[in-house]
Amino acid sequence: MTLRVAHNTPLYLTADVRAIEAAAVAAKKPPQLMEKAGLAAAEIARDLSGGTGKPVLVLAGPGDNGGDAFVLARHLKKWFFKVTVVFAGEEKKLSADAGAALRAWRAAGGKISTSLPAPQQWGLVVDGIFGTGLEREVAGRYAEWVESINRPGAPVISLDVPSGLQSDTGRVLGCAVRASHTVTFIALKPGLLTLDGPDQCGEIHLRTLGLDAQSLRPAGGFLIGPAVLAGALKPRRMNSHKGDYGSVGVIGGDRGMVGAALLASRAALKLGTGRVYVGLLARDAPPVDAAQPELMLRGADEVLKLSSLSCLAVGPGLGQTPDAAFYLKWALESRLPLVLDADALNLIADEKSLKDKLKQLDTIKILTPHPAEAARLLGTSTRDVQNDRVSAATTLAKNLDSLVVLKGAGSICAAPDGIWHINTSGNPGMASAGMGDVLTGIIAALLSQGADANTALLAGVYLHGAAAGRLIDQGIGPVGLTAIEVIDAARALLNRP
Predict the structure, then answer these.
(1) How far is CA 434 from CA 51, 255, 371, 431, 484, in A?
(2) In angstroms, rounded to a whole number, what is the distance separating the alpha carbons of residues 298 and 310?
(3) What does the alpha-carbon distance between residue 291 and residue 263 come to, in Å, rounded to a whole number?
(4) Cα 365 to the center of its chain, rounded Å
(5) Which of 30-34, 184-188, 302-306, 483-487 shows the lowest per-residue confidence on average (mean pLDDT)?
(6) Is the dihedral of CA 229, 232, 236, 240 positive or negative?
(7) Taking 80 as the threshold, does the pLDDT of residue 72 lie above it?
(8) Element (H, E) at 250
(9) Relative to the CA of 435, which of 27, 96, 146, 166 has its CA 20 to 30 Å away?
C-alpha cells in the first residue's frame, strides 16, 4: 500500500461519510458527487492506462459505486478509449443518480454487457462493483467477477474501496478485489488502512470532490504521518547532561526471556534516554549487557526502589509467575508514567484487582497489546478484535482509561476520549520476534525526554514502522529483518526526520 497524505488527515467511518454527504445537501451546496467522483476516477484511469491503446473493462455493480463506474466509462469513451461496461443489476432498482449515470452512458453511445466478456488483453480493469458500507459476503456472480479481476494481467483500479473489503474494518467479506490503485472519495476510510486493507488497496488516491469534510462533520479518527516526528522532542541545548534526558526503568526479563528486556532497554537508550536501568527477574541473568554496557542491569526490586526514574516500561519478557505479578503491582503503585506490554497485559487481563488498579491510576498509562493480548483484556476473542480493530482499541482505551496501541497491519492508537489514529508506516518484515519490545523502549524513551503521552505514543508507533521502512529501502529485509536492526534505523530517523 502506498499513501501520500499529511499527518492528521481525517479518517471517517461509513456512517460519517453519509452524514457529510447529507450535510452538503442540507447546506444547499449541491455537490453532484457522482459526476465528480466518476470524473476524478476517470482522470486517474486515463493516466494509468499509459496510452497503450488496449481496451478498458469496467465492472459496474448494483449500487452507487456502479453509478460512479458509468460516469467513469462515459468520460473514457469521450477521450477515445474503447470501453466495455459489464452491468448485471436491475436498472429499475438503481438510485436516481446511478440511474441517470447509466442513461447518460447510453446516450453517449455506450453499451451494456450482462456477463463477463472472453478473456483478452485489457489495458485496465475498473472495479465499480461494491463501495462503502458493504456488510454481506460477496457470493455468486459477483464473487466470480472478483475472481476474474484478481487473475494476473491488467492493472486494476477500484472505486472508493476494493469490492468485498469492509470499509470501516478492513475485513475481507468472503473475497475481495486486489487493486493496483484505489481512488477513494470525500475522505479516507479506516478499512483501507488496517487489517486486510493494505493488502487489497494498492496505491491510494484521495479525491475530496470539493468537500471540506471537517467543516461538515468533525472527524473521530486521523492518520499518523511523518510530521509527527517534528514535534516529538525539543532540540537539545549545548549546555546539557544525561540527567536532562530522563531515566527509564525496564522491568522484565525472566529466565529464558532476558533478551526481550534488553531489546526494550537498548531501544530506550539509543532513542535518547539519559539513563536506562534494567530490572531483570531472571536470577541467572548476566551482570552486564556485553553488546550495550551503558545499560545498568539490576534486580527488579532494585530498579523499582529508585527515586530518579522518569517512567517505567513493564512487560518485555516479564513472565506470569507470582514474582512477575508482585513487581507489576509494585510498578502500578509507583505512580510513575507507565508503558505496559506483553505479560504485564496478560497479568492485568487475568487479575481483576490489577485491572481495577490500572484503571484508577492517575498517571500516564500507555498499553501496547497485540490482538491476542487485547482480546484477553476485553474478555473476547482475537477474531472479534481483528474484525473491528478501531472499536476494539477505542473500547480498551475507554475501559482502562489508558492510551492504547493495538498493534498489527495499520496499528490503531486510541485515547480514552474516543479519538483514534491509524499508522501506515511499517512492512511485513516486522512480523519478527522482539519488535514489540523495541516499540515499548521507543515510547518510553520519548516519554523520558519530555514528550507528552499522546505524542510519545503516536511518534513512537510511526517511528517504529518508518525505521523498518528505511531498512527495506537499504535492501535489508523484509525477509530476515530483525528487531535490533530497527533500533539503529529509528535513531537515524529521529535525528534526521
Answers:
(1) 47, 16, 16, 9, 8
(2) 17
(3) 11
(4) 21
(5) 30-34
(6) negative
(7) yes
(8) strand 247-252
(9) 166
pLDDT in tens, 448-469: 999 999 999 999 999 999 999 9
Residues facing 422 on adjacent strands: 223, 412
Structure-block grid coordinates of residue 485: 536492526
Coil, helix or strand for 169?
coil
Domain 227-495 CATH (choose: 1.10.10.60, 3.20.20.140, 3.40.1190.20, 3.40.640.10): 3.40.1190.20
Q: Number of C-alpha atoms within 13 angstroms, CB side, residue 182? A: 35
E strands of 253-287, at which residues? 275-280
- Tell me the CA end-to-end span of the chain in Å, nearest whole number: 21
The pLDDT of residue 52? 61
Q: Residue type at 298?
A: R
User: To the nearest whole number, what is the mean pLDDT of the chain?
Assistant: 95
pTM of the model: 0.95
Q: Domain 10-219 adopts which CATH fold?
A: Rossmann fold (3.40.50)
Instruction: State the Cα–Cα distance between residues 50 and 153, nearest whole angstrom.
Output: 15
More confident residue, 343 or 31: 343
CA distance 149 to 135: 21
Cell numbers for 64, please give them: 452507487
